[in-house]
């Protein structure tokens, strides 16, 4: 079975996370992705460990399956010529060098599109190509200066990063979506185009209701721990043995919660009858819910509340989360042992994601690349 993007050649000049995540998504959907790496060291993430599996960094393994690797020193004229030939043959090029680097190498979009007018050229930057071009595009830095840390963690804390490089992942998703949109346009017109995404703009978009509150109403959000600024109850509570998350997003769910907890009449109390009232009287309501929930273990509440249609769940470890997904038939892991991978989350009935190749060893596909380039 051919993937949805079968027949497309992607020249992947990106490294670390945002770009490689985007190109892996394209590879999972059938594209041939050639990863261009530095000789000797390769992608930075090859050395980012522990943990390791089969001698490889699991960080590198996470975002580089279904790719082929060629090691090219872009300062070497002969290797640079191979890189240019690859770019000239490619349908898609993805890069995340500092702005201006690819232009200096003769690999910029303007230099390539004359010979390859159908090329979709995707540039991933930290802060765009204008005044922020020289700023280092690291996820942690963008979480800090982009506002995410200011709304994460406890109200009196110094600001907390997300537990994963979330901005890189979101930017990778935007990059892949932009490439697919540009390919759709190329299918209709034969014309390629440049796709640009930045970590900062991706984060500001991903802040959704918080960034909208600022843009439309001038409200500057602050950290609220596990609480939601606009919905109550929508946070972590204390059961008898462990924390339990409850997300009652409407009045019906709140009424069902009160019924299960035995808090008769609470849902009809004017202080709590509507979401706006519950937000205004958050502390008083949470205190009552905490007292009721402390009477039974989290697992018992989870079963009872779920049966009543109240969204809730325990705070799982990553291992617990994989077990839950497997129990729900989601097949979260493919392969076994050191070759095991986290499955692509996209389901397609006719052209599903494929797992054709394990993450490559550095430079292992030089012969394959040279053959498709005719040399």
Structure, briefly:
Pfam families: CoA_transf_3. By secondary structure, this protein is α/β, with parallel strands linked by helices.
Written account of the structure:
The protein has 375 residues and is of the alpha/beta class. A hairpin with a 2-residue loop joins strand 3 and strand 4 (56-57). The protein folds into 2 domains: 9-206 and 344-372, Rossmann fold (3-Layer(aba) Sandwich), CATH 3.40.50; 234-322, 2-Layer Sandwich (formyl-coa transferase, domain 3). The protein is built from 15 helices and 13 strands. The protein has helices spanning 18-28, 58-62, 77-89, 101-104, 109-113, 139-145, 166-189, 199-206, 208-217, 251-261, 275-280, 282-293, 298-307, 318-327, 366-372, and strands spanning 9-13, 32-37, 52-53, 56-57, 67-71, 92-95, 120-125, 193-198, 234-238, 243-247, 312-314, 333-334, 341-342. Helix 1 (18-28) packs across helix 7 (166-189) and helix 7 (166-189) crosses helix 8 (199-206). Strands 5-2-1-6-7-8 form a 6-stranded parallel beta sheet, with helices on both faces. Strands 9-10-11 form a 3-stranded antiparallel beta sheet, covered by helices on one side. It has a two-stranded antiparallel ribbon with strand order 3-4. It comes from Nonomuraea muscovyensis. Pfam families: CoA_transf_3. This is Crotonobetainyl-CoA:carnitine CoA-transferase CaiB-like acyl-CoA transferase. Keywords: Transferase. One of its GO terms (molecular function) is CoA-transferase activity.
